[in-house]
Design a protein that fits this description.
212 residues, mainly alpha
């Protein structure tokens, strides 16, 4: 990564950090609670929030929690669509900054061995920050269609957990539930195990080839 790219990344991180400090998920959900009586306005507000979320450094699960509180379990498909769309800014930015080097070469080899959709899906199943996974996919040069497909599949457990947590809230005005409430440890372990199994064989082949 050249000096100009490093400066760009540093500036982006500074903006995100400042925005996260000046705002809070609780305030956003309190604002959404005011709109919850109108399903159309509530949906439009959620769409706007999904666009702003990456700039604020908030977790994507917040979108699922809000959708669950506003629409119940029926809001899960809408929440999944919002999460997928909200992953695009980090992916696109990282893709523009991608270059050559050892990291890029290793990522390319991993992609060839696992396949793009499988690699993105497995990465999403691990309890990693969504934007980190999106940026990694962009840096690795994953094409858009496999990125969207892998994100949609891999985010399903987290979206369902967030939607269920939101549907159980009496009101959004009380703020978001804690991470421990949304992400049950059993779900985290199960999803991580599935993610590991998805890439176990190609990862083994990649390691074996590197030892030769």
């Amino acid at each position: 990564m050249n000096r100009r790219a490093r400066v760009g990344v540093g500036a982006a991180v500074a903006v995100v950090a400042a925005a996260a400090l000046l705002t809070s998920p609780g305030a956003a959900l309190g604002w959404l609670a005011w709109l919850a009586g109108d399903p159309v306005r509530f949906g439009l507000a959620l769409a706007v929030l999904s666009v702003a979320r990456p700039l604020l450094g908030w977790p994507t699960t917040l979108l699922a929690v809000a959708a669950g509180a506003g629409y119940g379990l029926a809001g899960a498909p809408f929440a999944l669509a919002l999460v997928v769309c909200s992953s695009l800014p980090a992916y696109a930015l990282a893709g523009r900054l991608a270059g050559e080097g050892r990291v890029a070469e290793t990522a390319a080899r991993f992609r060839r061995e696992t396949g793009d959709v499988r690699a993105v899906t497995a990465s999403r199943l691990f309890p990693l920050p969504s934007d980190v996974v999106s940026a990694a996919a962009g840096l690795a040069g994953v094409p858009l269609a496999p990125f969207l497909a892998g994100t949609a599949v891999g985010e399903v457990p987290w979206v369902l957990a967030g939607t269920l947590a939101g549907a159980s809230l009496d009101s959004l005005a009380g703020g978001p539930p804690s991470l421990a409430t949304v992400a049950d440890p059993r779900l985290v372990v199960a999803a991580a195990l599935v993610g590991a199994l998805v890439v176990a064989r190609p990862a083994y082949r990649l390691l074996a080839a590197g030892e030769r």
